[in-house]
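User: I've been trying to design a sequence by hand for this structure and keep getting stuck. Would you show me what you'd pick, starting by listing the structure so we're on the same page?

Assistant: Good idea, let's start from the same input. This is the structure you sent:
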């Protein structure tokens, strides 16, 4: 895809080699995820509650030491660590969501305030966890996108469809994938970002299903608790 710029042909940034994006937005997301996990009660986390948060911090620290500033190094080791971190975050979030659903379906007595706090923490973690998934997998991940090693995107952003309305140096960063994750979690469907590959469609479907189950069950139980108070 190309665009005209003052009489010359300019190749959009997302199709050419760039400096790569800063690591700190994704690192901050991991820190927030850990905080949300630590806020959950013992009944909503794995039995060894500190194992997964500690593992997430260790993996994040390894990435920060090896490549602290811009994500622009294509490395099999760094790629493996990044994917491992994403898997651990997703596993922790899915585990908590399953425990919440099982306890609500099982009829465990939970106060409305505690229920809403737990639901909000799991919902927020769901947004951040899947933002990391989309960021890590779209066109091979942030390092591969910086190197322009893959042409066909897994997600079609509006700026790709109408490049004349975007800055010529625009390319998707973590904030764009966070927005994608948030809108999918709230609307339970794509909004202005379209999934193109099959894996993208399946993962968006899984995220929407988790969010829907958490929201419906938590709100329904909270209303029931308040109504019987």
């Amino acid at each position: 895809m190309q665009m005209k710029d003052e009489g010359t042909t300019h190749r959009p940034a997302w199709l050419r080699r760039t400096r790569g994006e800063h690591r700190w937005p994704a690192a901050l997301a991991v820190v927030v995820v850990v905080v949300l996990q630590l806020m959950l009660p013992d009944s909503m986390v794995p039995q060894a509650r500190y194992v997964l948060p500690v593992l997430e911090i260790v993996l994040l620290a390894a990435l920060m030491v090896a490549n602290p500033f811009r994500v622009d190094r294509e490395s099999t080791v760094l790629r493996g660590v990044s994917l491992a971190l994403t898997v651990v975050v997703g596993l922790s979030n899915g585990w908590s969501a399953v425990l919440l659903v099982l306890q609500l379906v099982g009829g465990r007595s939970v106060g409305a305030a505690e229920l809403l706090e737990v639901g909000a923490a799991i919902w927020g973690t769901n947004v951040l966890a899947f933002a990391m998934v989309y960021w890590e997998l779209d066109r091979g991940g942030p390092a591969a996108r910086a190197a322009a090693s893959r042409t066909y995107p897994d997600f079609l952003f509006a700026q790709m469809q109408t490049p004349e309305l975007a800055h010529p140096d625009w390319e998707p960063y973590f904030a764009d994938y966070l927005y994608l994750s948030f809108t999918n979690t709230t609307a339970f469907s794509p909004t202005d970002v379209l999934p193109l590959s099959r894996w993208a469609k399946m993962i968006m479907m899984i995220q929407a299903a988790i969010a829907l189950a958490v929201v419906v069950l938590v709100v329904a139980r909270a209303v029931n608790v308040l109504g019987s108070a």
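That's my pick for every position. To get oriented when you compare it with your attempt: Residues 198-228 form the longest helix (31 residues). The CA atoms of residues 27 and 60 lie 7 Å apart.
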